[in-house]
Amino acid sequence: MNGNELVAEVLDWVQDTSFGKTAVLNVLNQGQVAIASRILLPGLSNGYDTITTVTDDYKVALPSDSDYMKACYHAQTSNVVVDVYQSLSAFLAEFPYLQTTRSSLMGIVITGGELVYQGVPASATDIEIRYYRKPTPMTTRSDSTPDGVEFGSDVAENYERALVHYAVRYCYAKIEQGDGRKEDTAFHNGEYERYVKLLDTGSPKNRPHPKPPICEGNWANG
């Protein structure tokens, strides 16, 4: 479905003229980010950037316009692969004392908006990274399709259903303010969680995806 169709579905559920189409589209975009922050969506695994090291520190901030979302899974410099750590704790287990000692790059981790690395090259060095990026917002209702749905139709449908219920839940949370029961909000929250779970089941552990990074947790479950 395109943005216009998704907005129409949300408004069909809500039946409240106080919610405009543009506002609903914005909430759907928020839903895309919410889902992508929880699940490794294969359609978003094409994130790419080049980060340049500095010579007097072991970390550098990601660019302000970076579309990085989560799970950096590959890094290289001058055609040499660099180990990627999925958590700061795993990184520190390998490199317990972060230093600016000059050496070739041995490993990286992205945490708190920064790329942290050991060792520190003697000159500024470009590190190419690949990761799961943020979804591209739908900017118009007529010609935009939700980002990250270029996989099977069954998975794409679960993604769209999750987006719709995310937005409907948001609307009913506004409508039912002060209502102790919040029955409609609770219902659509449950449906949102149900479709996210279905989406998680189909992505990406049951389909090809990039080599997992070094991590402590279960990569398949994100």
Helix and strand topology:
Elements: H1 3-14, H2 21-36, E1 47-52, E2 59-61, E3 68-77, E4 80-81, E5 83-85, H3 88-94, E6 107-111, E7 114-118, E8 126-133, H4 153-175, H5 183-201
Parallel strand pairs: 5-6
Antiparallel strand pairs: 1-8, 2-7, 3-4, 3-8, 6-7
What key phrases describe this protein's structure?
disordered C terminus; 2 domains; 222 residues; single chain; four-stranded antiparallel beta sheet; four-stranded mixed beta sheet; 5 helices; alpha+beta
Determine the strand fraction and express it as a percent band. Answer: 15-25%
Helical content (DSSP H or I, runs of 4+): 25-40%
For the secondary structure, the number of strands is: 8
Rg over C-alpha atoms, rounded to the nearest angstrom: 21 Å
Strand order of the largest sheet: 1-8-3-4
Q: Look at the structure and give the mean pLDDT.
A: 87
The best one-word shape is elongated
Main β-sheet, in a few words? Answer: 4 strands, antiparallel
Structural class computed from helices and strand pairing: alpha+beta
How would you spell out the order of helices and strands?
HHEEEEEHEEEHH
Task: Note poorly predicted spans.
Answer: 205-209, 217-222
Question: How many domains in all?
Answer: 2
Number of helices, where a helix is a run of at least 4 consecutive DSSP H or I residues: 5
* End-to-end distance: 26 Å
What can you tell me about this protein's structure?
This protein is of the alpha+beta class and 222 residues long. It has 2 domains: 3-41 and 135-208 and 217-221, no CATH class; 45-133, no CATH class. It has 5 helices and 8 strands; from the N terminus they run H-H-E-E-E-E-E-H-E-E-E-H-H. A 4-stranded antiparallel β-sheet has the order 1-8-3-4, with no helix packed on it. Strand 6 and strand 7 (114-118) form a beta hairpin. Helix 2 crosses helix 4. The longest helix is centred in the C-terminal third of the chain and has 23 residues, at 153-175.
